[in-house]
Structure formats: C-alpha cells, structure tokens
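Q: Here's a chain of 84 amino acids. Please give me its 3D structure as tokens.
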Amino acid sequence: MTRYHASLTQAPQTQREFLLDAMEKLALSPGAFAQRVGTPLPTLYSWLQPVTTESGFHEMPDAVWKLVREIVTHDVRTTLTMAS
C-alpha cells in the first residue's frame, strides 16, 4: 500500500519525496537527519526506498510524519525570526 500525505507544502507526496524535501529544507545530510528524528540511519534508508523496490521499503509510522513536519515548521519559524 502506498501512502500519500500532505507534504510540508500541502501537496500530496510520497514518503520518499516528503523525507527528501524535509532534508533539503533543513539542510541536513541523511546521517544528521536520522539523528535529528531519533532513528537509526538504516531505518531512514528503508523509508527512503522507492515503493517499487522489491525489498528494503518500510512505511514510516504516522508519528514520524508528524514529528518531521513539526521539526521543519519550527526550524523555518526560527530561521524567519532570526532574519527579522
């Protein structure tokens, strides 16, 4: 089952697109991003696998979708506040 969620910009995205978008917005490497969300790097890589991959793909828990959104939102707000 492929799950799509409203992304950081509210357009539907795949899990992979959502995570790559978050890493880009936060300017974090996969290792730093995994540490920031509190997951092992191999788990992050399994979440980043395309759904079409026969092995290695795992669906990300809903709590992680929410956590990543909150981290990005907080980071963006902090950046905007500091720039003002």
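Q: Can you summarize the key feature?
A: The longest strand covers residues 5-6.
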